[in-house]
Amino acid sequence: MRKIYGILLVVMLVCVGCQWKLRTSDADAEVSRSGIQRFDRIESLYLTTGDVAAMQQLNTNYPMQTRMLMEDVLHLGRVNDTDINTKFLYFFQDSTLQRMLADVQQQYADMDDVNDELMAAFERLHEEFPALELPEVYTQIGSFDQSIIVGAGTLGISLDKYLGADYPFYQQHYTQEQRKLMTRQMIVPDCLAFFILSQYPLRGVNAVLQQSRDYHMGKIQWIVNQLTKRHVFDNEQVAAVKQYMHAHPQVTFLQLLEE
Predict the structure, then answer these.
(1) d(Cα 68, Cα 140) in Å, to the nearest integer?
(2) I need a surface site. Which of 14, 47, 94, 172 has the fewest CB within 10 A?
(3) For residue 225, what are the CA distances in angstroms to 114, 122, 190, 202, 242?
(4) What is d(CA 50, CA 58) in angstroms, rounded to the nearest whole number?
(5) Kind of pairing between the strands at 154-158 and 7-9
(6) Residue 153, exposed/middle/buried by CB under 10 A (0-12, 13-18, 19+)?
(7) What is the DSSP letter of 148?
(8) pLDDT block averages, 10 residues each, the chain of length 259
(9) Which residues 6+ apart lie within 8 Å of 81 measured at CB?
């Protein structure tokens, strides 16, 4: 089974004088990676009430996340445009999006299960890739576009893409195969798959060959199955990787991706 992925890879440069920065200190970075940050709650508060204080909190506490949401996900304009907040608020006044905002807050009032599974998987990921710096993970609400947003040191989860296979909007706009994968249970596997893909993309001539791309994704999906201790992905490529790793137990995850 193949999934039609929704991922946004954002490359950002950190420079002196920018209005945002990648990290504040090593201590803050350690704390920020200890769990999922609920950016979506403050976002939802602003979009449902127009609370100016909530918008100020987004810009102050989550400058890079807010920038990516405005500019790269919703394409509303530059984050420092004078009317950007009004555009942001007006964009979500659509009745379908207002309903979605409420549904997200209801379904994801508690995310302890997702957080615990992701942190456990990240620990296993760190054991296999000790040099890999784990991202700061946060939740957000988009407009049914991207699922996972990978930036410089950040990983955003768009909860509007994980409202369940039977969600009414999904039934009208997505195939049954796609809807099966737009569930709460797919959040952690998607986070891992897209993060690993962002760190170990397929390069060179092989990157243009569909067979090579499928096999590279199969490697990542097999690794995700191991990290989550679940049989999430099951397809021809994953089966081939499984067979290869069984025959070559000395090969590490890193060697598998880089070979």
Answers:
(1) 11
(2) 172
(3) 16, 13, 11, 20, 10
(4) 13
(5) unpaired
(6) middle
(7) E
(8) 44 28 33 75 96 96 96 95 96 96 97 97 96 96 94 95 97 95 98 96 82 95 98 97 97 94
(9) 87
